[in-house]
Amino acid sequence: MQRHEVKRRRRWRWVTAASLALAVAAVVAGTGEEPARAAARAEEAGARAAFGAAYAVFMHPRCLNCHPAGEQPLQGDDSRPHAQNVQRGRTGNGKYALKCSNCHQTANVAGRHMPPGAPNWHLPPPGMPMVFEGKTAGELCRQFKDPAENGGKTIAGVIHHIEEDPLVLWGWSPGEGRTPPPLSRAEFVAKMKQWADGGAPCPE
Ligand code: HEC
Ligand code: HEC
User: Fold this and answer.
1) End-to-end alpha carbon distance in the chain
2) Which ligand is nearest the CA of 158, by number?
3) Residue 115 Cα, ligand 2 centroid: separation in angstroms?
4) Cα of 134 from ligand 1 centre, angstroms
5) Can you give the pTM of this predicted structure?
6) Mean predicted confidence (pLDDT) in 177-185
7) Closest Cα partner for 204 from 94, 48, 78?
8) Where are the alpha helices (DSSP H) in the chain?
9) Domain map of the chain by residue range?
10) Could you identify the atom of ligand 1 that is nearest to the CA of residue 124?
11) Residue 203: which residues within 8 A CB-CB, separation 6 or more?
12) Of 13, 69, 76, 132, whose CB count within 10 A is highest?
């Protein structure tokens, strides 16, 4: 064996040993920080998944029917346009003489196809329409986080709204012939709180 060849082999052995030592050091040093970062990542993934679960409620007719893409409320489990050409109007309370409160009371009127009711029954106004219809989970999530689109609310304000607002609460006592949303109210609120507490991350 030539001298320079022996030297090269020795150098290789040294390089291999050094990189092995570095790799071991990285693993040892990592044990302190890795779990914390992994936990944060898991919390964020959980929060994002929680929004995905809550999304099924927002897309349900009991919520969607008052958050339409167009200028008319929708009705029924098939989300058809509201009968009698009812329109949003300037304030969300109806157009001209056809006001929501002409027919919708502060509580449901008993019987199938009778007007449902809750205090202040109306649509969001045209300047702040809060559209749910046709939005993906990611789009809706970003809308909830944007004060210019959510009525000037903080995330805490959005959570407060879904916990306390009479129109949201109505979704779980919608009257005869109307199905409630797919999650219970408690499950829905818990998912939205998990989303908020996990930093309100949005799906794609
Ligand atoms: C009768 C119509 C009506 C129904 C039914 C309704 N909403 Fe709304 N919703 C509104 C109006 C009007 C506003 C705006 C009121 C405000 O800002 O105070 C609003 C605002 C919201 C907001 C905050 C605004 C945003 O988009 O950031 C959320 C969240 C919301 N609704 C969720 C729901 C959920 C969940 C349901 C079903 C369980 C539901 N709504 C059912 C009329 C309705
Ligand atoms: C002329 C009476 C009348 C007026 C005015 C009216 N509604 Fe209705 N609305 C009804 C009746 C009746 C039903 C129930 C229809 C059924 O169950 O077949 C209904 C159903 C609905 C539903 C469906 C609820 C669901 O989840 O299926 C929504 C949402 C709604 N109205 C919103 C409004 C809004 C918002 C306004 C004002 C912009 C309004 N309505 C004005 C009579 C009216």
Assistant:
1) 61
2) 1
3) 6
4) 16
5) 0.88
6) 98
7) 48
8) 3-58, 61-64, 100-103, 137-145, 155-164, 166-170, 185-197
9) 46-197
10) 12
11) 48, 51, 52, 55, 136, 137, 138, 141
12) 132
